[in-house]
Amino acid sequence: MNCNMMYRKFFACVGVFLYFSFVSMGGVLTSYAEDMPQGDILIIYSDNAGEDTVAAVNDLVELLTYQSFKISYGPASFGMQYMDRFSYIICYDLDQSPAGFTERLKQYENSGITAGRTESPHILFTGNEYFKYYLDHTKRSDQYELLNSTVGQLKYSFDGLDNKTGLVRESCFVFLKNSTYHSGMLTVNDKRGYFCAGNGRLTHIPAADITNQLIRAAMIKEVSQWKWPFNGSPHVYAQYILIDRVYPYEDPEKLLKTVNLLIERKTPFVISVMPMYVNGDYPSMVHFCEVLRFAQAGKGAVIINAPINQMNRLDKDVMLDYLNRAITIYNKQGVYPLALEVPRNWMFQKDTIEIMSHFKTIFTSSETDPYLKPENRNTNEVYKDGHQWVGTSIPIDDTKISYVSAYSTSLPISLQEDYEEIERKVKACRDSFVPFKSLWDMEHGYWLDKQLMTYKNGDLILNDKKMDIKFTPSVYPDRYNYRRNMLQRFSRDLTSQSRRLVIAVGLTSVLFLLLILWARYRNRKNYFFHD
């Protein structure tokens, strides 16, 4: 009897456990459903994908976000449930698929326009192994050619004239025998294939290594063309010369020389300034802002870099407070930042997305914020804020200029570089086929605590007051009061006294050495030449 009661209790506990397990699993599935709303593109990757593949997918999501696409992404086992919500699906370097996925993808390919989408299905495969498996499964084994080699040479032209070349590594290469569209040349074992080709609803890119800069640039160009619903080429976006991460204590004369170079050559440019939170009226800061006002008057735009994050747990309110202080200091000096520059991984964190939502125009740098912990996401939530994006150019060669016109890009220039190198980069940009554009030709805006800025049709309005960006020279006092406290004055006096002491000791040492040499000379003369 006691034994039966014990077993009943055991099975009851197991039943309760399984019930709550299924309930929680249902909650997980529901959350994934909520995380995969209807969008522009769905990216599917392997269920067992490693960190490198997930990082590559995030890179692709970032580049597509610059083009204002609404992206959802996730492993194949979940993505297969939501295919009908999307007209464009990317199967990114799949090496295996869950049960039923391939048949589900086949059904999607053969389906028409449904209530969940407005266009017929489009499927883009990157990589080769699963693409081969899919063609075999759908009885199209005669439509491709398999090359069992691991290395190929890629030639790709971004402007229709010059080819960029590089090596490509894959486990094998598959090429469609017939295609209605092809671009680029991928040579494997003296066999000429393509970089991208399409036939019907299927499009294929054999090279999937997006860490290769040439593949990265070519892939984003081809995805833009694949997503373009009209005949011809997609919109051409501009590039910007960006004098990046400029500090007030850097050489203002070199900054002025660079600004004059760009103004004389009638080249639009952007200056990204670092935030300052105190001492906005110091003479060095006034002189720095004077150069910035001169740049503004010469149609050079100023943007502000996000405060450097040094918090293990980022506090968005603190960051916004520091941004407000920094922009206020620049505004008081007649400098009006139009946009915010952030590390590229700010696009994937809830709090940083909230910070960026205060600005209309966002520049991203090639740097990452090391203190930000990655969050599991299945959609580019930053899309909803409707930013104007400017991403860093993809450096294919040593000029580091942009060869991609699928989204707006910036070419960073550092004042730490030699002036000759800066001239070389400016010339390379001017000779590029990607056009320039001035930030003053776009609309901008931001809102912070007690600050609201809008720029439209040439009028910059700050807190309901129109600002004048004409250049006016600064007036410097004959003697500036630094308002130092007792400790600062003592430190300054001690530094001054120490400098005087070092000079006095040095002069005394030199005099003492001269006296020793003179005495030695006299002694030698008296000893060796005495009559």
UniProtKB/TrEMBL annotation:
Transmembrane spans: 501-519
Taxonomic superkingdom: Bacteria
Keywords: Membrane, Transmembrane, Transmembrane helix
Protein known as: DUF2334 domain-containing protein
Source species: Lacrimispora amygdalina
Lineage of producing organism: Bacteria, Bacillati, Bacillota, Clostridia, Lachnospirales
